[in-house]
Specification:
The complex is a heterodimer of chains A (about 110) and B (about 110).
Chain A lengths: L3 E4 L2 E4 L5 E7 L5 E7 L6 E8 L2 E4 L6 E7 L2 E6 L8 E8 L9 E2 L3 E5 L1
Chain B lengths: L3 E4 L2 E5 L4 E7 L6 E7 L6 E7 L4 E4 L2 E6 L4 E6 L8 E8 L7 E3 L3 E6 L1
Parallel strand pairs in B: 2-11
Antiparallel strand pairs in B: 1-3, 3-8, 4-5, 4-9, 6-7, 7-8, 9-10, 9-11
The chains are: A mainly beta (about 110), B mainly beta (about 110).
Chain lengths: ~110, ~110
């Protein structure tokens, strides 16, 4: 998984609670991404980062926030989890801007909101 | 709306047989097309990435083709192995410099003895 770890790997939480997922990379790649994967849908981009403290929204960003205080860490926060945010979350990294280069994916975090 | 459609949704083949997976896309303007393999419980792993000028690209027993005129791609797997059992995802990039990848929903391949 290209030097990418995600934590936790599995989490069950209750509706309304805050949740933070962590992505950690050892590749020193500048660009980091958070996706969600749901049955019947392709992976969808939530947020991405193009450098420390530089982030932007993806196509399904409502209800999510991100932070990147160090090159190696990208955090995804669900401020108040809802059942619709039950999903598998993948972090990805790239050393090339935009979509011209490879994106390397982490192992995923399975989140269940009850 | 940019879309990527894959077929079939699922496929079962016997070990040693060949198979071909299809991908049709409506993403425009086209930049590149990728095929990923995703094992159960794991993240996607890149197999190939093809630009407009590339018709064919191979990675071991995997061969991807691209017809940018008809907006179709295929992934051919030769002499399948049990370890090829996975979801194969077609991903199309809309423009260079942007951050938008359009993912298909994948073809679930199962290779049996």
């Amino acid at each position: 998984d290209a030097g990418i770890t995600q934590s936790p790997r599995h989490k069950v939480t209750e509706t309304g609670t805050p949740v933070t997922l962590r992505c950690h990379q050892t590749e020193n790649h500048r660009y980091m991404y958070w996706y969600r994967q749901d049955p019947g849908h392709g992976l969808r981009l939530i947020h991405y980062s193009y450098g420390v403290k530089d982030t932007d929204k993806g196509e399904v960003s409502d209800g999510y926030s991100v932070s990147r205080s160090k090159t190696e860490d990208f955090l995804l926060t669900l401020e108040s989890a809802t059942s619709s945010q039950t999903s598998v979350y993948f972090c990805a990294i790239s050393d090339v801007p935009g979509t011209g280069g490879e994106q390397y994916f982490g192992p995923g975090t399975r989140l269940t909101v009850t | 709306k940019n879309q990527v459609e894959q077929s079939p949704q699922s496929l079962i083949i016997l070990e040693g047989k060949n198979c071909t997976l299809q991908c049709n896309y409506t993403v425009s303007p086209f930049s590149n097309l990728r095929w990923y393999k995703q094992d159960t419980g794991r993240g996607p792993v890149s197999l190939t990435i093809m630009t407009f000028s590339e018709n064919t690209k191979s990675n071991g027993r995997y061969t991807a083709t691209l017809d940018a005129d008809t907006k179709q791609s295929s992934l051919h797997i030769t002499a399948s192995q049990l370890s090829d059992s996975a979801s194969y995802i077609c991903v199309v990039s809309a423009e260079r410099g942007g951050n938008k990848l359009t993912f298909g929903t994948g073809t679930q391949l199962k290779v049996e003895l």
